[in-house]
Write a structure and sequence with these properties.
With 599 residues, this protein is α/β, with parallel strands linked by helices. Helices cover 22% and strands 26% of the residues. Strands 1, 4, 5, 6, 17, 18 and 19 form a seven-stranded mixed sheet that branches. The protein is globular and about 75 Å long. The N and C termini lie far apart (51 Å).
């Protein structure tokens, strides 16, 4: 990105994060300072309202997400809940543009994972289509997330600065990728040799004397959930210490209004995007890592826009001084955006916290599509069509994956079985497969939006499910190591937010969620083909390269011996579909009965 383009974006308007809360529920709304009356949306009086629009975890979902991945839950006045189809960048653009009308001061921001883990339309082209769409959305600034590092530091720098892909080149004749018009912020990601942030740590939005600083960062645990090769030479620092450091720096520059864009999140008490997060008290409706960060960061920071957990919440969590402070997240895949009002005091140059109002808004699909986004999608779909539309298999009905809402996913079982079949073709001693749930990005939908017909699985749909290009690896693990790995699903870094591995046919066990930590895995219940796991024996285990490197906190899986690297996981999946399904005999959803869950 050119310096001129960057100055134009930051000098003109602010991109903000979108937060989750009922449209009728205000957060932190109270009396304003004397002399502020009548000042909303104007330059008269002591205060001025700045609109902050925000979102997070788009993951390259330019087209509306399929199945349950493209729905949000809305709580009705009578207490019932309703599912609403949501998302799609054509509708997100319309929603944001409508929301900005009448607001002289408006900024749009994001909290990371805008790219990475993307459907084929974006992922096939290294997410250039998504960055192009974000530029058209007038995004002002974003913090990085862990998925911005999926293809390594050099690729993130290319995404920021532009230029054609070093291996694939340019995708359209005469067109070179321009990069992001908005700054990606990497406050807590530094080069080990220089100690300097990989990209800018913060930026300041300015308009008519109003100044708001934005600090952007990813979770400190990013090295545990991305490929080690891609982040070689980088250090990831503590979130609280990093925010405090740069908040102090901004304060010395006279920037008193500060918003942190943090790619770390929490778990809400309700899956409804419009539940009351502050009932019975401030912040009681959310738990998880972001709560401790919010409680620990200096009061100089006025609000948090967060992400990573793909959840929806708008909460007021007390800062170290005991004052309520806004913390928001807007689900994922562009299904929600958060509309926040920040009341700026021209005299103190700070945000009046009592005047802050925020709510999550649904990106509904019953509004007109943004024509420029439709053109963008059509252009890239035309380039992708020869690959995307190729049939690879057949299914008899929906096979839930990421949208299953259960520890064991039917699609997870299918993927694990596919990887085991591939592993057996390499080594007939392969005994079982373990698959990380985060690697399953969507559902397989029986009636897709394309024209291929019901039950047909296309390459594009399979790519959307498994977009990471991991390889299927084989390693030797002892029975004791397998037991330890299963316990790591619900202990250590995964205790607060368990990561339940998907398992191949033949492996069964009981997960007792009434217990705590590692005790949730009932050791005596673990069976392989009906026989108890022998902790002294050695088993040949298939798993993707991410898990083989100890990713997602599964350090025990990173200790495997005698490694053998197979084909990429998408090929293994497609080969399995081709070999085990036809139009006359489609694959039925697995029963998902391998893990018995006690609640």
């Amino acid at each position: 990105m050119s310096g001129r383009a960057q100055r134009r974006r930051i000098g003109g308007r602010l991109v903000v994060g979108v937060v989750a809360l009922g449209a009728s529920v205000g957060v932190l709304a109270a009396a304003l300072p004397a002399g502020a009356e009548g000042a909303r949306g104007t330059d008269r009086g002591r205060t001025v309202d700045v609109q902050l629009l925000s979102f997070n975890d788009l993951h390259g979902n330019l087209e509306p997400p399929a199945g349950s991945s493209g729905q949000v839950t809305e709580r009705q006045e009578d207490g019932s809940e309703q599912k609403i189809d949501a998302g799609g960048v054509e509708y997100l653009a319309t929603s944001l543009r409508e929301a900005r009308k009448g607001h002289r001061y408006s900024a749009t921001v994001a909290a990371g994972d805008l790219i990475g883990g993307s459907p084929l339309l974006s992922g096939l082209f290294h997410d250039e289509p998504t960055v192009e769409a974000l530029n058209k959305l007038d995004l002002d600034v974003s913090g990085v997330g862990n998925h911005e590092f999926d293809e390594g530091r050099a690729e993130l720098q290319r995404i920021q600065r532009g230029g054609c892909h070093p291996k694939d080149g340019c995708y359209e004749d005469g067109k070179e990728f321009k990069g992001a018009d908005f700054p990606y912020l990497t406050a807590n990601v530094t080069d080990e040799k220089t100690g300097k942030p990989l990209l800018k740590p913060y930026t300041v939005w300015k308009k008519n004397g109003v100044k708001i600083g934005f600090i952007g960062l990813t979770l400190e645990g990013t090295p545990d959930i991305v490929s080690a090769e891609g982040i070689k030479g980088l250090k990831f620092h503590d979130e609280i210490e990093t925010i405090d450091k740069y908040a102090k720096e901004l304060d010395k520059q006279g920037v008193k209004s500060i918003v942190a864009l943090v790619h770390e999140g929490g778990e809400p008490a309700s899956q409804a995007y419009n539940y009351d997060c502050d009932s019975p008290g401030p912040g009681d409706g959310v738990s998880g890592p972001i709560t401790e960060i919010a409680k620990g960061v200096t009061p100089k920071v006025d609000a948090f826009v967060t992400g990573h957990t793909h959840q929806a919440y708008v909460c007021s969590i007390p800062d170290p001084a005991g004052k309520p402070r806004l913390v928001t997240s807007a689900s994922s895949y562009g299904k929600l955006y958060t509309d926040t009002t920040l009341t700026y005091d021209r005299k103190t140059k700070d945000i009046v916290r009592a005047g802050v109002r925020s709510a999550n808004k649904v990106v509904r699909r019953d509004v007109p599509k943004a024509a420029d986004m439709t053109s963008l999608i059509e252009r890239w779909n035309k380039l992708a069509a020869p690959i995307a539309s190729k049939p690879v298999g057949y299914i008899s009905s929906d096979i839930p994956g990421r949208g299953a809402g259960t520890p064991e996913q039917p699609l997870g079982d299918l993927i694990a079985d596919a990887q085991l079949a591939h592993a057996k073709s390499l080594d007939d001693k392969a005994a079982l497969t373990l698959m990380n749930p985060g690697g399953i990005r969507s559902d397989l939908v029986h009636k897709a939006s394309g024209s291929e017909g019901d039950g047909v699985v296309t390459y594009g749909e399979a790519f959307t499910v498994q977009p990471f290009s991991n390889t299927v690896n084989l390693v030797d693990l002892t029975g004791a190591q397998l037991v330890t790995a299963l316990k790591q699903q619900v202990s250590g870094p995964n205790e607060a937010s368990p990561k339940i591995l998907q398992v191949s046919e033949g492996l069964t066990y009981t997960l007792d969620m009434t217990q705590a930590g590692a005790d949730r895995v009932v050791t005596d219940s673990i069976r392989l083909d009906g026989k108890p796991i022998d902790e002294a024996a050695t088993y040949r285990v298939a798993l993707n390269s991410f898990l083989a490197g100890g990713g997602d906190g599964f350090t025990e899986l990173g200790k495997g011996k005698n490694p053998l690297v197979g084909s990429d996981d998408l090929k293994a999946f497609n080969d399995y579909l081709a070999a085990n399904s036809s139009a006359d005999q489609p694959i039925a959803p697995p029963k998902a009965d391998r893990i018995t869950v006690v609640k």
